[in-house]
Amino acid sequence: METALKLFRSNIRQYGMFIALILIMLLFQFLSDGILLKPLNITNLILQNSYILILAIGMLLVIITGHIDLSVGSIAAFVGAVSAIMMVKHGMSFPVAMVLSLLFGAIVGAWQGFWVAYVRIPSFIVTLAGMLLFRGLTMLVLDGKSVAPFPEGFRSMSTGFLPDLPGGWDIHLLTVLIGIVLSVLYIFMEWRGRLVQKRYNLELLPVPFFLIKLAAVVIITNLFTYVLASYKGLPNILIMLFVLVALYTFVMRKTVMGRHIYALGGNEKAARLSGVKTKKMTFWVFVNMGVLAALAGLVFAARLNAATPKAGVNFELDAIAAVFIGGASATGGVGTVIGAIIGGLVMGVMNNGMSLIGLGIDYQQGIKGLVLLLAVAFDLYNKNKSA
Asked: pLDDT at residue 7 above 70?
């Protein structure tokens, strides 16, 4: 029992919000009379929150470095508007338009990163200016009107599903098989990691807890894929999210760039004296944020099948809330990609659950605000306790 408590205390940031997510899901499953976890609603949850989760990944890196980006919603709206002009008005093929849109997002990120990294203007001011600038440009480009419809191939990015194996199965068989393959890969990677830890005489998780952890992840993974398989299978956007999470988790955990980002957020002066090119790193973090904001704008436009002047409103607040709820520190230097995703899912499940039980938007906003405040207070409490 003491070992379990010790493990929980040492990983409370990592596991605390995951446990909260499970409890919130069970609560709304009960209050909504079982609607929340139905296959159709789970699929809708993924589709509705995909662009916020994409933004949360980029926002995590910005917040780890000790900065903030208030412009991502406006950039997403502007890129969606530009992509609509290219595809709908000028008939450009959607792959070319998407590449150009992502390049444009990188340019916008570079513009803001320059002012933050090299001119040393606070990121709050730079991105607030960007929020106003790109919101105005969105209205200008669209002339205050929606532009639609997008090509079918482009829309399938947000609304399409992975095709099934031939044979006319009662369930989406390929999705079930993918769940099994992911489970086997996870067990293999965890076991290999444990052998490496043992070889270097590092502290190991006790065998019973290690097996419980493996079993829990495998069960949750296969239940999740089974629920999706009961409807239409894996949404295309979920595959994109999985690739992004895997890529950014690898970058932040295993690469020099990831270590430099954490060092920059932990103590910029010490990082600079240690050889970290802090200005260059800050610049590229904002470039990355611009690209992911552009991608989120494309995903949102594809799901809506239209570019609208009011797209992206409050996206930045949802992304920031997801990162902080997921365990990132308000002072920088702390946070994980998985944590940001869990934070985004907490927000998404709360939005969906409160809508299912008929709670008014006024109550929803107030409850979300309280959850964000409590999450940051919990983070500061843990930090002060550990100090």
From this structure: no
Which of 108, 143, 103 lies closest to 129, judged by CA? 108
Residue 386 token pair: 């550990």
CB 236 within 8 A of CB 156: yes
Closest CA to 330 of 59, 43, 26: 59
Is the distance from CB of 386 to CB of 11 less than 8 angstroms? no
- Determine whether domain 1-160+235-382 maps to CATH 2.40.340: no
The two structure tokens encoding residue 46? 């993924």
Condensed to tens digits (0 to 9), the pLDDT of residues 191-240 reads 999 998 888 888 888 888 889 989 999 999 999 999 999 999 999 999 99
Please write the tens of the pLDDT for every residue from 145-155.
999 899 999 99
Domain range summary for the chain, segments of one domain joined by +? 1-160+235-382
CB atoms within 10 A of CB 128: 15
- The enclosing H or E element of 10 equals helix 2-10
**Omega of the bond leading into 149 within 30 degrees of 0 (cis):** yes
| Axis crossing angle, helix 173-199 with helix 207-229, rounded to the nearest 10 | 160
The C-alpha atoms of residue 210 and residue 356 are separated, in whole angstroms, by: 37
According to DSSP, residue 160 is labeled: -
Rounded Cα distance, 229 and 259, in Å: 38
CA–CA separation, 41 vs 48, rounded Å? 10
Identify whether the C-beta of residue 352 lies closer than 8 Å to the C-beta of residue 48. Answer: yes
Contact 252, 62 (CB under 8 A): no
Is residue 164 within 8 A of residue 174, CB to CB? The reply is: yes
Whether 11 and 203 have beta carbons less than 8 Å apart is answered as: no
**Helices marked H in 326-360 — which ranges?**
337-356
Start-to-end CA span in the chain (Å): 25
Instruction: Name every residue whose Cβ is closer than 8 Å to that of residue 364 and which is 6 or more positions away in sequence.
Output: 350, 351, 354, 355
Residues in the chain, overall count: 387
Whole-prediction pTM value?
A: 0.93
Identify the residue whose tokens are 């001011």.
Answer: 125
Give the integer Cα–Cα distance in Å for 269 and 108: 27
- Position 110, amino acid: A
**Cα atoms in the Cβ-side hemisphere of radius 13 Å centred on 57:** 27
* Residue among 229, 97, 230 at smallest CA distance from 155: 97
